[in-house]
Amino acid sequence: MNHVVVAPDKFKGSLTAREVATHLAAGIAEVAPDVEVRLAPIADGGDGTLEAALSAGFRRVPVRAAGPTGRPLDTAYAERDGTAVVELADASGLRRLPDGPAPLTASSQGTGEVIRAALTAGCHTVVLGLGGSAGTDGGAGMVRALGARLVDEAGRPVGPGGAALARAAELDLSGLHPAVASTRFVLATDVDNPLLGPTGAAAVYGPQKGAAPADVAVLEAGLRRWAELVTRVVGRDLTGAPGAGAAGGVGFGALAVLGAEPRSGVEFLLDLLDVRTALSGARLAVTGEGSLDAQTLRGKAPAGLAAAARALGVPVVAVAGQVSVDRAVLRGAGVERAYPLTDLEPDLARCITQAGPLLRRLGARVAREWLL
């Protein structure tokens, strides 16, 4: 028992999970050089999922794909032993918008193009990390990129984005990539919203993507029409399935058309990335994310890591830019102590710009208090 596992999520807007882990490890090594530090950056299916897979030994496979507004961009999937990890946010995410929000027209087409590349390369399993999407198109763009045909009453292709779906009249899935039928698709997400209604994709997440109230109504109408066509073709209604509303409804498209199985994002990725193996026999696990708050405890990556470590009898501490959860609640979630950057630097702007050196100092502090 002489190793420590450093398994943080990203510090959004500041550092990737790998960078966070590297800075913490450097601080630990300064104080406890004889302790082995194992880096295991984690994610929950959203931003950072691709990078976490690459850090775990998957290989990067570059793909040129359409961004959320159609502009080509360079993205990739991660592959190991025939399993491809596709991060929706890296191809169709908010951070990939070139000119600001596009709630009515942003598409998941690029995500479908990345999946198509993985299928063509012979991958037998596709793990689709959902989160951070720029649009609300129900996965229509993704499905069309895989070979589906969606047209209006005049037989013309329906335009991209959720708003255009209201004009859809016919869906033809006969041209789907032939490997779809034999491929296992896994949805890595901790969002359990349905596709439609007051807790659905448009109502809950549309405003986060720049949709005004009138836009939400337009998107809801488009999703409803899309769902009617999909349900008619596949013969089952999955609009109310948990996770159908994830990533602007891409969850629905994957569940209904690709036959995907929904899995807890962090739970599935902990296994896929062999994090539990790294935790076995560890003296300590260090996790964290940019803001440790109530949302963290609702299925985010640090909470999943803490639960996994507790099950193995490994104590857990967390680091974060800021912490807004009291100590008793954290302990109930399996986190013995939280170390915010604001303990060292009260100015939040400086915490973001100087996160690396501050994390190194916190790593040293963790080592002094838990490893000596």
UniProtKB/TrEMBL annotation:
Keywords: Kinase, Transferase. It holds the Pfam family Gly_kinase. InterPro entries: Glyc_kinase_flavodox-like_fold, Glycerate_kinase, Glycerate_kinase_RE-like, Glycerate_kinase_sf. One of its GO terms (molecular function) is kinase activity. Signal peptide: none annotated. The keyword Transferase applies. Belongs to the glycerate kinase type-1 family. NCBIfam families: glycerate kinase (TIGR00045). This is Glycerate kinase. It comes from Streptoalloteichus tenebrarius (strain ATCC 17920 / DSM 40477 / JCM 4838 / CBS 697.72 / NBRC 16177 / NCIMB 11028 / NRRL B-12390 / A12253. 1 / ISP 5477).
